Amino acid sequence: MSFDEQPTTTTLMPPDDSTWRLVRCRDGEPATVRFGGWNCRVVLQSYADGQHPLLRLIDVDDMASVARATVHLPGAELAEDELLVKDYAENEGVLEALIAAGLVEPTGRHISTECASLDVARMSDALSRQWIDFRQSLPAARQGRSRP
Questions:
Q1: For residues 27-52, average pLDDT
Q2: The pairing of beta strand 32-35 with beta strand 21-22
């Protein structure tokens, strides 16, 4: 099995639209994490199947993509509120950053691939609600179902 590759740090995010949203803290402010020397905002997107959340870190100053914090591994058995965190190689420390920001909780579970071991994390209640709201706003084709 394989998963999405890490984006380059030169990818700029488009203005907030229907394809992504800034993750918000309970007070409504954008979530900020410190990772790899950058102060980052956390962006919520969906993988192409519309069924799995994608978390991306972007630089607060220029919106350049810093890291893709999650991966999608087809066939991985996850609960609705769980995601796979890439916390190795250039992403080492991203799980701790997401935990420190109160966005995820570690489960202690790991899923091994040919390349690495991925951490299974549980989304916070606030992030889980944002994912549900975001997913419902996606076009029907991206939600994994066809239009009526």
A1: 92
A2: unpaired
- Backbone angle region of 29, left / alpha / beta, with phi > 0 → left and psi within -120 to 50 → alpha: beta
Q: Which helix (DSSP H) or strand (DSSP E) does residue 99 occupy?
A: helix 94-100
Average pLDDT over residues 17-46: 90
Phi-psi region of 102 (alpha: psi -120 to 50; beta: other; left: phi over 0): left
Residue with the two structure tokens 């997401």: 98
Q: Which residue has the tokens 């993750």?
A: 23
Read off the pLDDT band of 105 (50, 70, 90): very high
Query: Is there a contact between 10 and 64 (Cβ–Cβ < 8 Å)?
Result: yes
